[in-house]
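The instructor's notes for this session suggest beginning with a concrete chain rather than abstract definitions. Hand out the sequence below and ask the class to guess, before any prediction is shown, which regions might be ordered.
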Amino acid sequence: MEPVILDHLPDGLLDRPASRLHEVLDGPTLIHLPGRRPQPLFVSVLQHGNEISGWEAVRRLLKGRYARDPLPRSLILLIANVRAASRNRRYLSDQPDFNRCWPGSDSETGPIHRLFERITAHVRAQKPLASIDIHNNTGENPHYSAINRIEPAHLRLASLFSRTVLYFTQPCGVQSMAFGEFCPSVTLECGPPSRLDGADHAMSYLSSIINAEALENRPPSPEDIELFQMVATVNLPPANSFSFTPDGSDIILRPDLDQLNFRELPPGTRLGHVNSPIERALLVRGHDDIDASAVWFHTDNGDILTSRPMMPAMLTTDERVIRQDCLCHLMERIPVGRPAQDSEAWHELPESRP
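After discussion, reveal the predicted structure:
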């Protein structure tokens, strides 16, 4: 599969919401738009079809002053999963998760993997100023940015969107990690897609970056950033049913679970309860690939409780997303200013080492 690469916006593209892009685009499409500064900014939207804030931000940006004025910088736009967007789904049943298919993926190689390998090589040759991948959360989360390298330019790019920055190295095969090999790269998390403030924030950020003469290669001041590391991923046992309402499922989770995102939870916080004997109600995989379920959670008289202080991110009550992706990720604070070469040790989980 070869990438579709255009040098213009198709007629009527900007008039269509994400759900109608499939009427114009057959699949993942790269669009090159010229600007006064030739070094391009790369922007990716709709890797997950139900995460629409990125597309709304881009279409509003390009329909505004840049409908008549030249872009201040060249832009390479990737519009990814238009089929899933037409159904308001993260991805469809016959598709992989697009944001697990980039170079470095550990999933089985398929046509999307090969397509994204070609797109990566193509964009690398353009020597982009930076890469920005725009997403939404299904649960209640603040707007935050995420990076895969603790390096000055990456931290600076991330802090310009939010002082809350998440450093992660799992899952593999994400776009920001692949492009971080050759340019500063960031993922923007813009809250629930139904809220206009996510698209507003993303549009303002894109406008700022595309107007910048250059990106500063120095880290933000410690008071301007809160840095967290993602240390583990939480899933539900695939063999057990679950729900957020008392309907007789094996596992009943709190209906307000997503209100706990980015809150520091003490040991003993109740997340739900079990209706049947289950060895592990929540499955935790540390990013050293060790089962850390018993380190983080336990069950007492049927209640699912935290076992140690933690801060969750991306908790969601969307049952489809939980099965397709995960229940949440777990984070720990890390200090700003440690040498970047120490970063490999920052996301180890001492309690789960063999």
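Then share the key points. The chain has a mean pLDDT of 92. The two ends are 42 Å apart (CA to CA).
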